[in-house]
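Weekly structure sync, notes
Attendees: PL (lead), two postdocs, one rotation student
Agenda item 3: pending single-chain targets
PL asked that the sequence for the first pending target be pasted directly into the notes so everyone works from the same version. It is reproduced below exactly as submitted, 174 residues in total.
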Amino acid sequence: KTTSCSGHCTQAATPLKEISCMLSRFSCVTVSNIMASNTAPGHDPAELGELERDILSIVWRIGSITAEQVREELDRPLKDSTVRTVLRRLEEKGYLAHSMENRTFVYRPAESRQRVAGRAVKRIVDWFCEGSVEALLVGMVDSKVLDRAELQRLAERIAIAQKNSNPEKKEGKV
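Predicted structure, written out during the meeting:
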């Protein structure tokens, strides 16, 4: 759901919280303390810049974090406004969400690292392997990215994930 106040702001609202703007010439007031992404999920991770990837890695590692904490965690000095802009853009792209704590934005991942990595790998599979995951894995073995032991562990994890995702199999009904 999107609300706006006379063109001053537009924010996406979560189902549980409403955003209300005071219709005046000078002010918009956010009543909600939880903001959700206002873009569709599925942004292409390959289009993220280096700074976006660095900041996203920090948020994934720490969990909930403020812009100031992100700035302190970065390996290079950046202006506060630069960090805030990148955080806002990552939120617009669907990677982050934020809540308000005492007038401070606290950012958290909107998507797990694994889900984003999965989308990135899918793009590689589509581009270079004509959609074949098998071709990707064979290429990874051929180039010594994966060895036989890692493939065996992957096969075991996949089998467990498939077993856990099918409740009928767990109950012996299939």
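Discussion points:
- Helices lie at 50-62, 67-73, 80-92, 113-128, 133-142, 148-165, 167-170.
- The mean pLDDT is 78.
Action: rotation student to compare against the earlier draft before next sync.
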